[in-house]
Each structure stands twice: as C-alpha cells, then as structure tokens.
Amino acid sequence: MDTVTLEDARRVIAAAEAKAAEIGQPMNIAVADAGGNLVSHVRMDGAWLGSIDISINKAFTSRAFDIQTKDLGDNAQPGNQFYGIHASNHGRIMIFAGGLPLSRDGQVVGSIGVSGGSGEQDQSVAEAGAAAL
Question: What does UniProt give as the signal peptide span (predicted)?
Fold first, then answer.
C-alpha cells in the first residue's frame, strides 16, 4: 500500500504553514498515513491548544471515510444521511471543515487535518497543504 512518508508530511505541513502565515492565522496541522495514523503534527506559535486534538482527528476522519470533513459535515446535519456520525469511532469523528484526503495517482495515501481558525480558513490551509503532495 502506498502511503504518506515523513518527507511527504513535512512538505505538506510546510505548504500549509506558509498559507496559515499568509492569512495571519496560526494553525495546528496534522498529517496521517494511509492507515489513518499520525505521521506528523505542527502547532504553530499562538495556535489554540484545543485545536491540537481537533486537527489530528480531522486527519483521522478524512482518511477513515476518504472524504473531506467539510463534505461529511454537510451530510451529518439533522435529517441527512450521516446525522450522528460524529458520535462514532469513540468520538474521534470531526464534521468541521479542514480535513482532506491526500491522493497520489488516484489512490488515497493519507490525509491532512487543520484546525485553529474559521472553517473557511482551516479549509484553505488544508487545501494549500494537500496541493504540495
């Protein structure tokens, strides 16, 4: 199975950090491998402590379901097909924007999770990181 390496994770995190610095919002940035396991995490100076766990769990969620957490969140609202999913997996499922699968040659090889700003900010920083893979 192809998976994100530490070198890949460092490249993804560096690109995400650059975007976070550009928008002036310190972030927690996590990268998980193809198994959903944490490869690397960075807490930028001034990023919220509470967002450490959220960023790691966004990366887990994105890989566990091979979906952007933003899209999962849209489908997890009351009356929608995934309502209540956030209570699964011992509460590790995040339904906020900022988690994205990482793909190489059409195959999911890991994921990125970003937390520390608004959903829109988290999403843009995660997208910048993913683009570096």
Answer: none
93 and 73 Cβ atoms separated by less than 8 Å: no
Statement: the pTM of the whole predicted model exceeds 0.90: yes
The structure tokens listed for 125 are: 């920083």
Q: Given this model, what pLDDT does residue 106 score?
A: 93
- Gyration radius (Cα) of the chain, Å: 13
In the sheet with 28-33, reading across from the earlier edge strand, the strands are 38-43, 28-33, 107-115, 99-104
**pLDDT per residue as tens digits for the range 45-90:** 999 999 999 999 999 999 999 999 999 999 999 999 999 999 999 9
Q: Is-contact 10 42, C-beta < 8 A?
A: no
Give dist(CA 58, CA 92) in Å, integer: 8
Residue 1 has pLDDT above 90, yes or no: no
Question: Could you give all domains of the chain from N- to C-terminal order, each with its CATH number?
Answer: 6-131 (3.30.450.150)
